[in-house]
Amino acid sequence: MHVPHGARRSGASRVTLLTEGTYPHSHGGVSVWCDQLVTGMPDLDFDVIAVTGTGREPVVWDVPAHVGRVVSVPMWGAAPEGRAPRRRRADRLAADYERFVTALLDPRAEEGFGPALYRLARAAADGVLSPFLRGDRAIAVLTAVWNRPGLPVREARPTLHDAVTATTLLEHALRPLAAPYPEEGVAHAVSGGVAVLPGLAALDRHGVPLLLTEHGVYLRERYLGYRTAPYRWPVKALLLGFFRLLAEESYRRAALITPGNRYNRLWEEQGGAAPESIRTVYNGVDPAAFPPAGPEPERPVLSWAGRVDPIKDLETLIRAFALVRAELPTARLRLFGGTPRGGEAYRERCEALAAHLGHGEAVTFEGRVEDIKDAYAAGNVVMLSSISEGFPFTLIEAMSCGRATVSTDVGGVREAVGDAGLVVPPRDPAAMAAAALALLRDAGRRRAMGEAARLRVIEQFTLRQTIDTFRSIYLELSAFGGAAPTASPADHAFAAAGGGAPVGSATG
User: Fold this and answer.
1) Given a cut of 50, is residue 487 above it in pLDDT?
2) What is the CATH number of the domain that holds 367?
3) Is residue 327 part of a domain?
4) What is the DSSP annotation of 190-240?
């Protein structure tokens, strides 16, 4: 039966995907994962609440008919509509905000974070939070809090400029609270952080169960990013306090947490998640869509695929390639993938590094490729040099294509590779170069490793396993009103195939 685009179908479960900087406005591994879920479950209804940059980002995916609406929530565009509260409402909101920022800065007051957050969410829904945070009173509240005696941040002598900066950043970070959050079905946050905010609000207001999937560890990546952020310590302390307490609140309140690898589970348990609420569900690919890549290039080529971003650490890869080329002068490094807006300076830095090392002509940035399989086929060995990953699609896609891989030991990489690839420490050009040279010099080893890699994908990481597991989770969360579901036959089959423990199990 044909279903008109956006129509509500009787009996169909509704899932609201909560995304940040990914589907359906951007390409990349998480976006691919979202598209696979949506297109793989035409029997369910979907909505998407997407946190974006300016709100002007185009939809770059073909959104299927069973997606009812796509709501863009810009963090850095025009300020949300609304007007500042007056009189007693303003006093109450100021008190709620004071409790909120106190929780971010004072370890003795952290239990106030959740209650204050939900009060702010109601103010956001009424259109008064953003105007309040753009006013002088919010700045005065923060200034008074972080100058209290006994708070460590006071020792850093925060300035008025710090207060303005921190308040502005918080105002932007809290904008997703004003999104039209779901009132039914399941809210599925496909990352931690600000994408979860509409889901927490929906849980608080309407009891909508929250499902949280972390591909990378959002909090860890904020810690990495803020190391070089251009802010003074008082600002960093406030924002990192926000991200930490938001992660802890998300872990505590989620009906189920489905990390993409077991490494993430350690962070989630440390952040307060109950072990029985965590279930590892690996990413999957369709082996038929990523068949063996065929003949290798005639001269030695290292290939890489992904988005050009500092977290991918292309500088280490380029330095490693320079060491490879010292041994194999005809070698080339081919880099496939787009450069996100704002990342142009990083790409230029990488190009300058290759030129400085004397290998600029052998390192090529080839942009997005129409068929990603071509990127894997382009190399004798596929490289992954990231300093943070979840369970990377590019890695299991390359493995499905039967290519030998060299990857950094971050996130779920070792879980993906097993003994079917080489894993080296991150930020270690010498180790990466040695692994690449070992494979480039041994065609038989490359062939055997590629065959083992494809077999590993077929046995453990297929798309069908992933989709069946999430369909079961969606239906059971809907049926149980947010309680963690028990394992279904599909879950047990997935676990038996190496996909982790059944839902509700304490191991995963």
Assistant:
1) no
2) 3.40.50.2000
3) yes
4) SSSGGGGHHHHHHHHHH---EEE--SS-HHHHHHHHHTS-SS-HHHHHHHH
> For residue 376, is it within any domain?
yes
Q: What is the pTM of this model?
A: 0.79
Are 357 and 274 a contacting pair, CB within 8 Å?
A: no
Helix (H, G, I), strand (E, B) or coil at 462: strand
Host domain of residue 331: 301-460
Q: Comparing C-alpha atoms, which of 443, 502, 426 is closest to residue 469?
A: 502
CA distances from 60 to 57, 151, 335, 343 (A): 9, 46, 22, 19
End-to-end CA distance of the chain: 39
Residue 205 CA, distance from chain mean position: 26
CB 40 within 8 A of CB 463: yes
DSSP state of 420: S
Residues in Cβ contact with 100 at an 8 Å cutoff, skipping those fewer than 6 apart: 112, 113, 116, 117, 120
Mean pLDDT, residues 398-416 taken together? 95
Edge-to-edge strand ranges of the sheet holding 363-365? 363-365, 332-336, 301-305, 381-384, 404-408, 422-424
Q: Are 121 and 196 in contact (CB under 8 A)?
A: no
The answer as to whether 318 is a domain residue is yes
Of 20-24, 242-246, 273-277, 389-393, the range with the lowest mean pLDDT is: 389-393
- 368 within some domain: yes
- Domain total of the chain: 1
